[in-house]
Amino acid sequence: MNTLRTIVAVAALTACGLTMAQSGATAKPDAKAPAKTARPAEAKPKGKLMTRDELRTCMVENQALEDENLALKAKEKDVLAERDALKAYKAEQDKAEQELQARGTQLKADIEAIKVFGAEIEAGAAKMEKDQLKAKQEEYTTRANALQPRIDAFNKERNERVEKYKGFNERVDAQTKALDDFNERVETMQDKRDEWKKTCANKSYDEADEIAIKKELAAGKK
């Protein structure tokens, strides 16, 4: 007899601020087909036959479990798709962050070089000819003016990235909740399946009752 097992639980991403770390959730076995409601009575059944009401209850509960299993499989696809999208986005943003950090390091070095150049001009101004001092000052101004747009662009991109990461972290939080909810549903379904097995599995019943119940259930869906 086939038995139902829990569906694979997907890995969660966690993030905090601009530093994001991936963490994995405990994997669970793949789901398999739900168990059949019971077995038809043999020519010489062993033990007491299930009543029609008992069989009906078992069949209805089994169908509900099968429906939940199908719903979980569909939900699993959504959860996995969002996980993969977040992983890809994170990898892209990590690369961009590394590039931004490298530009920031170079920018700091260029700013420091300008400061050093300005200090040298100030220290040697008394010994310079007027024209030489003017040339140095103009060079300083040109270099400083060229540097300012780079500083502004860097700060703008940095601020934009902070906002983008806020949105990413919100998606991560939602993904983590979806994962928790998914796993909780899987565990609840497994508990119900285990309880169903205790009550319904491997019990004999009258096949005529099964046929009659199927007709009842089919009529109820119309």
Automatic annotation (TrEMBL):
Q: Where is the composition biased (Basic and acidic residues)?
A: 29-53
According to the record, the signal peptide region is 1-21
Q: What is this protein called?
A: Chromosome partition protein Smc
Q: Where is this region: Disordered?
A: 23-53
Organism, by scientific name, is Roseateles amylovorans
Keywords from UniProt, A to Z, are: Coiled coil, Signal
Which top-rank group of organisms is this from?
Bacteria
Annotated coiled-coil segments of the chain: 62-99, 172-199
Transmembrane regions = none
